[in-house]
Structure to design on (330 residues):
């Protein structure tokens, strides 16, 4: 087999893994919302997700234990913001607003990162990146239907925005401690420790000893269909977290960060479609168009080259994808 054929096969596998990762991540909110509506507190669902995934990935944490000495700030930033903060605010948001809307609000993160770079760090950004920000904000205005005085719960929108801000915080911390080349930390090790840090933080915040554990022995409704609660939880932990993270990291190793970024945008589309089919959450035509504009703006913002003479700003679709690109991309 020629080198070209092997390369094409590797990219094909990488593309398949990236799509699988987007599907897995996109299904997290759809599986979590029925558990929340069945009586579980959003924070308890997040704690179950993060703690379960941390236990599954514990062997990786042991294997990369040197990270505790070499990258403690990165581990803390990823655990506090990229895991605990993003997921807690996101799950709290979907308890009040549609899954697709919450995830699209999160996709403001690349625009917010560029705002940090331009106005706080006072570093120039490209015109294309600025256009991406404008598109993302304009698209979001359509998603939330500002012309009708916001058709969604304002608190839910603020919670989704807080999730986006947590992503920005993680991106900024990661940027300040990032290296290149062989010194870059293994992303799977960072993810494993981030989940452990997130589990510890969420244990203190959510107090799971007061959780209604009996809810997991019952069923949860998904648009009129009763599904075992434990099955939804298993999906959230094993598929939407462990498999999603691992396949996301491996896909970036086989694809360029730009291609992986395009595929990552499918996450919001998949989440919206799954919420429509499985939860009966319908979006209007303007909201669908607005969502497409948000994703286009996010992609332009995260993939635009930095302005000449400027250090490259950080931006991405989600913390684990940004980490993957830093740790493994050629």
């Amino acid at each position: 087999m020629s080198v070209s054929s092997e390369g094409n096969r590797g990219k094909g596998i990488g593309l398949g893994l990236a799509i699988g990762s987007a599907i897995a991540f996109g299904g997290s909110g759809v599986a979590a919302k029925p558990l929340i509506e069945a009586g579980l507190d959003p924070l308890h669902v997040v704690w179950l997700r993060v703690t379960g995934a941390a236990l599954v990935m514990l062997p990786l944490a042991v294997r990369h234990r040197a990270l505790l000495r070499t990258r403690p700030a990165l581990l803390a930033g990823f655990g506090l913001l990229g895991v605990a903060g993003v997921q807690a605010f996101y799950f709290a948001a979907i308890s009040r607003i549609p899954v697709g809307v919450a995830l699209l609000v999160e996709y403001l993160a690349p625009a917010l990162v560029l705002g940090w770079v331009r106005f706080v760090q006072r570093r120039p950004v490209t015109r294309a990146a600025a256009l991406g920000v404008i598109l993302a904000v304009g698209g979001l205005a359509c998603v939330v239907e500002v012309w009708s005085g916001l058709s969604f719960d304002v608190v839910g929108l603020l919670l989704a925005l807080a999730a986006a801000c947590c992503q920005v915080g993680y991106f900024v911390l990661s940027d300040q401690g990032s290296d290149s080349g062989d010194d870059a930390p293994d992303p799977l090790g960072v993810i494993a420790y981030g989940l452990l840090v997130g589990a510890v933080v969420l244990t203190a915040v959510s107090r799971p000893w007061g959780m209604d554990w009996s809810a997991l022995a019952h069923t949860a409704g998904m648009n009129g269909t009763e599904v075992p609660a434990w099955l939804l939880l298993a999906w959230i932990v094993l598929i939407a977290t462990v498999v999603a993270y691992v396949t996301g990291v491996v896909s970036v190793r086989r694809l360029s960060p730009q291609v992986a970024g395009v595929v990552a945008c499918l996450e919001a589309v998949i989440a919206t479609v799954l919420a429509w089919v499985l939860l009966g959450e319908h979006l209007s035509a303007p909201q669908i168009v607005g969502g497409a504009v948000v994703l286009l703006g996010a992609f332009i913002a995260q993939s635009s080259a930095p302005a000449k003479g400027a250090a490259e700003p950080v931006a991405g679709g989600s913390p684990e994808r940004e980490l993957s690109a830093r740790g493994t991309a050629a």
